[in-house]
Amino acid sequence: MTLTNQELANAMTSPASIFDFPLEVVACPGLSREQKIDILKRWELDARALQRATDENMGGGEPPLLDEVNRALMMLDPQNTVRDGFGSAPTKI
Q1: At 86, which helix (H) or strand (E)?
Q2: What is the 3-state secondary structure (H, E, C) of 11-26?
């Protein structure tokens, strides 16, 4: 699967709009390792937000796929050395 520029832009902002599963990102030959990690980090952020909503009984959508996203990230960055570009997002305590 080779992505167009528009599909790449969409994948960077909403990975699930382009890919069905996180491992599809890993297997996509047209993406660099850094692009794959960026897409998966965005997917992780989205999955965590969905998980928080589900925890607060505001779910109802697709399952977050957080475990699958983390497995895919571990394949590309086993030491978790690549930081995401989202800064220090607030977290629920």
Answers
A1: none
A2: HHHCHHHCCCCHHHHH
